[in-house]
Fold each of these.
Amino acid sequence: MARRLLALALTAGLALAVVPAHAAPITCKLSGSAQFSPGAKTKAQSISYTFAGKLANCVGGPKSGTVSAVGAGTFSCASGTSSGTAMINWVTGQTSGVAFTTNQTTAVVRIGGTVTSGLNAGSKVTGAIVFVANAVLCATSGLPSATFNGVVRA
């Protein structure tokens, strides 16, 4: 009986050893700028975008990093949805690939997604950013770019 319990304990220990542990979530302030093509207007349209930003004051992992992303969707200066991919380069030299979606209501953009590779792979991504945009351009020629600030967690 003792041998069976020892064998069971060793087997359980081996099973635990091969199951990867999920890393603690990393929460960061995010700031940067986005470029839209064509420029965002008051009426929703198909738009592609790129953005570049900085992750700072991070808790739960590397203290900072940079992020770049590409995406596309149907949105206006006030609402819409999109999806895309991002690459985070952490100050430690590690990276994280992210697949994300956005849902915009007014200037607030909610972010959801998954870390697909690298640091914290498999973790869910959540966040919200607020755009600072020129409303006159939204109503006329189209908004070609805007800055943003917010918080993300992965």
Amino acid sequence: MLEKKDFSQSLKALLSRGKKTLESRKRESLVHMAINSDRIELRDFDISVYAMNSLIQLKDPKSVKPLLLGMDEISSNNDEYCEFIIEFLQELDMIAFDNLVDYLFESSSKKTIFPLEAMGKMGKTKEDKDKIAETLMKFIDLDKDSLLNAFAIMSLVECSKDKYITFIREAFKTKEIDFSIMGDIGDIEIKLGLKKDKTNRITVEKLEKFQKKYNLTKEETINQMLRNNDMLYDKMVDIGKNDPCPCGSGKKYKKCCLNKN
């Protein structure tokens, strides 16, 4: 069983080295302790917290990838480790960027949401934030997963505000995006101050009036109203399974948001 005294002395010696390059063996040891907090036998203290704090203070870029890969090894309810990943990446900031990008484009894990969330809080200069935004847009273009896309858009909004709103609007039309994170495009536009509210929704009355006036089918009417006014359906509208999806994706409702709703 590891004693607190022994670990504290080892940690003190390690931190006294400042920002010098970590020896591979010591880096691996700290990463192992951070990831395996549930499986290391302790006495009167949480060794994983010591290891996590050490890694944050040491700011070693070579620790980034093994720590991110370690997310797949931890239990799903280990919130402490996931919060550590976000704090760790924020603290390292652009030091971690290259290794973080490699992980994002290689991984298909749902836990990628945590580094994606951290990216929105990274970057201290305009150039850094632009670099982060470009990476997030490339990630969204991959269309890996609706939840991952939603977190990437959340961070894109956080680091660039409305600078890339055209890209975000297009993403909502062409990609799978989980509405539970930031809502739909209308919610994002309201958040950014581009719209006051969602008053221009398609009601049953508006739909029938428009359809009769222009002698269109229901599908043609919905498409026209979405295209002309950037409107969304009111919940009262009876949406058929084969109608265009109200999220604006261009897909049929049954193949898009039907199951989500």
